[in-house]
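For reproducibility, we list the full input for the manganese (II) ion complex.
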Amino acid sequence: MLVIMSTDSTDRQIQRVKDRIGEMGYSSHAVSWHDHYAIGVTGNKGKEDRIYLDGLPGVLKVVTLSKPYKLASREIQPENSVYKIGSATFGDGNVVMIAGPCAVESKEQTLRITEQVAQRGAQMLRGGAYKPRTSPYAFQGLGEPGLEILAKASEKNGLPVVSEVVDPGTASLVAQYTAMLQIGTRNMQNFILLQEVGRTGKPVLLKRGMSATLEETLMSAEYLMSNGAREVVICERGVRTFASHARNTLDISIIPALKKISHLPIIVDPSHSSGHRYSVIPHSLAGIGAGADGLIVDVHDRPDEALCDGPQALSPDQFSELMEVSGKVCAALGKTIGSKTA
Ligand code: PEP
Ligand code: MN
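The corresponding predicted structure, in tokenized form, follows.
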């Protein structure tokens, strides 16, 4: 349900509505509905409950929401969500550039790459300290020492960090070191993990499961938001199809479809979709053309030595090229990409 307050409702009337929602055993979420203050109600199971709210002073109307996802829906918030994380703004119509190594391998490697992407216009740093790997024998990440390295690289170069959380037990630890928590494709429906990450209250980058529908993706966003995350960004990173010419199939069709029904920003990961560096720039441009709010790109200055996903990493020079051509596409669309240093 959504309780829309009249424009002249008082703070006391709003509090009374929230108290009533609490007494009914439900949760309140403050949202804005056009120019009205509104309260999203979650946890209710039937239509009949609205009679306890309909008649309260200050209430303009109570609307039953039709979608199973509530907080992520445009029904509850018609305007795009806009979040600011450092110098990056998601959802304002421009394109945020997130770049960095797939994995934190060492202090030197991370500091080198961070400096190079920062100089070339990245606004946020990516890098995994905990890596979900298909093989148990592959490099699993440095763990907490990796987070310390990321925090140092962030401080030195002024780039906020996004890094993956792979288990509920380390959600608050990763939150201490980073500006944004990442949920990987393999964990999109790990609901205990989503709840724990939501509870940190941190911004979250939610990667679409490699076989998840749009609705399932928004239900996972709902797990995060109903547990306390206020800033959720969806990431399209390619899905599994019959095609074997790319690591995954970049599904740019999800971008306009998501924007139609949700107010959440959506970015594209052209590195994990393509799997090959030669197609990272084309995937990036397709994402921008389809309306993505940002890109998250693997960059490595010694890709042959990379411990994770070297073949899809752009060199720093190729990252410069990406910034340049993306800037042109953005300009044609009346947008900008990355920071002013680009
Ligand atoms: C990553 O971004 O490092 C990653 C593991 O991506 P995904 O979860 O999309 O495979
Ligand atoms: Mn990777």
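The radius of gyration is 21 Å. The first strand starts at residue 2 and ends at 5. Both points were considered when choosing residues for closer inspection.
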